[in-house]
Amino acid sequence: MKVTEKNRHIYWNPYFGGFLLGLIVLFTFYTTGRGLGASGAMKSSVVAVVEQVAPSHAENNAYYSKFISEDKSPLNTWLIFEVIGMLIGGMISGGLSGRIGWRVQHSPKITKRRRLYFALGGGMLFGIGAQIGRGCTSGAALSGMSVLSVGGFLITITIFGTGYLAAYFFRKNWI
Amino acid sequence: MGPLIPNGVIPYEWNNILAILIGIAFGFVLESSGFSSSRKLAGVFYGYDFAVLKVFFTAAVVASIGLYYMDYLGYISVGELYVQPTYLWGAIIGGAVMGVGFVAAGFCPGTAITSVAIGKIDAMVYIVGIMIGVFIFSEFYTLFQPLYEGSYLGNITVVDYFGVNPYIFIFCLTIVALLAFFFTDMIRKKVKKVFY
Fold this sequence. Notes:
- The complex is a heterodimer.
- Chain A is globular, with a radius of gyration of 19 Å.
- Chain A has a domain at 38-101.
- Chain A is built from eight helices and no strands.
- Chain A has helices spanning 14-32, 39-53, 55-60, 78-96, 112-132, 137-146, 150-167, 171-174.
- Chain A is 64% helix and 0% strand.
- Chain A is mainly alpha-helical.
- Chain B contains nine helices and two strands.
- Chain B has a domain at 50-83 and 165-196.
- By secondary structure, chain B is mostly helical.
- Classes of the chains: A mainly alpha, B mainly alpha.
- At the A-B interface, helix 1, helix 2, helix 4, helix 5 and helix 6 of A face helix 1, helix 2, helix 3, strand 1 and helix 4 of B.
């Protein structure tokens, strides 16, 4: 049988993906009593690095010290394990559809360099925002909304609301 | 009865194993839904692709209906689930900063992880950016502290805070989601297509 190259950019129906994602959130709450997350794993990684490089600085800092304990590494947290799983799951899905490969994805109207600068800057803003708001789109917004948390709705509205307000200034990067 | 691990139905040692398994499922679904593509994600802000809104809203509705239905049937106690604390201004300002970051980079942390998994360099740079952001926040924590710790309202849900009936609230949320799906489809038909 001839193997034909299929379109690599055909994705699932969004309602199907959303339904499965909802079931995952449900399963997570049912088993562990908590929700999903992502940015917390990056926070733990930063705490672990700073603790290794400058242990006394990390202990004296009022923020890092919240996440440092005597008996276990800051990397020994639920979200770190979950994010390791996400890398595996993403790789399986991408691998099955032939989407794996080194590339910088950007609009043909902008350069690769510009894309990377904006990715870095956007990441920095998201990193700061996720600390101020105590969670990102996965942990605070999606999991929060699922248990009807006031903060979850508030963060969802402000993330997407500000995204729309700011979209005009970044339009050249996307359309 | 649920939640299983906090109530000792499943031994605590399973917690991290479940974390990896749940992560695999989460990463798989995000990637398969196209969330490893920043250009697809950014579509929600420009009207050429509303996948983010559809996936996200469907998931929240399915999960909240599921949780409250399981609570109604006695399989889980909603009161024992983790509800994040609400810090009014922290949530508003934090959300606003994240919103700008989202449209600038086209990723949020979870979607970027699945994008890293398929080798996208922009997603890797984005993750480095997040870590720098966390570092900046931590180093200047004293500046952020009043915002981070102020206007604390407790671990509140809309049921506690506004006294609404959760079933009616979820029903309304579902209607809002369906209306949003309907109208965004109408918008998408009018917007010039972007191929990526």
